[in-house]
Fold:
Amino acid sequence: MSPASFRSRVLDLCLLGVVLPAFACAGGVAPGAPASIAVPGSMPAPMAQAKPDPSARPDPSARPDQSARRDPSARRDPSARRVSRPVTKVARTRVDSAALEREVTKRLAHRPLAMALTRRLRNPELADRVAAAVVYEAGRLRMSPSLLAGVLLIENGPADSSAISTQGAIGMMQVMPVHIGSYGCLSGDLLNVEANICHGARLLSSYLRRTKSVELALRRYNGCVTGRNTPRCHRYPIRVMRTASSVRREMLLSAAKLSDSAAEDGNVSSSRLGAELPSTVASEEADTGNAGEPTQCTTFLGCLRNKWSR
Structure:
């Protein structure tokens, strides 16, 4: 390279070194100059970043629409709110099933129990005979007919009057011969249906008076002792009470059918069948859990068709 060309190249570089910093400080670029020029032996200059102007205020037109906010005056009118209907409490009658059973047997005698036993014994004549004896003894001793029927069905399911157990218990209610003549029954023949039920009912009644507990009385009637003679005897009261409850339910349903058929045939006046129950049988209570359910237990037939408390 000639000395003249070398000097011109050095001058050009010196001019660029003077002009470019001046334009960089002014924030601009020389017209027609490239966006960035790399100078040999120098670091690239950082790009200038625009800083926000503190004096500049935001444009009010860019704010969110104030009308989009909830207007307090535009709230729902309280009168337009949904009005909740008050829950009406309907008085529902609860009936003691034991008291209702007494009322049924007073009005219809032993027929409801006979119908209930017929379904189990499959012998209408025997069922009617057993039901008549059970209802008679229950009324005389102020006991529940369904309880006596429950004992009879647990002791002797087929109701075989000639049945004799391995321990020597005889007849319908499995009475031991040692009790013959002790309770004022008309006959001492335990193979007779009426005599056997008489002995069994009066024996159970004596246990009830002594123990003041149905469970203990039933255990004593069963001769519940620890040993091989009466295995699992602690379950005996539960079985009897379960059977008695089932018999009572069947009695009440049968009584409703009998009352309906009697009213249709005209044998019994509708005023008698629809007479109000005594205060000892029905008592009205407020039942909040079954609001809106009509009560049907203000009459005798209504109570028979309705559910009972126990």
Q: What stands out?
A: Residues 33-41, 268-296 have pLDDT under 50 and may be disordered. The beta strands are 91-95, 282-286.
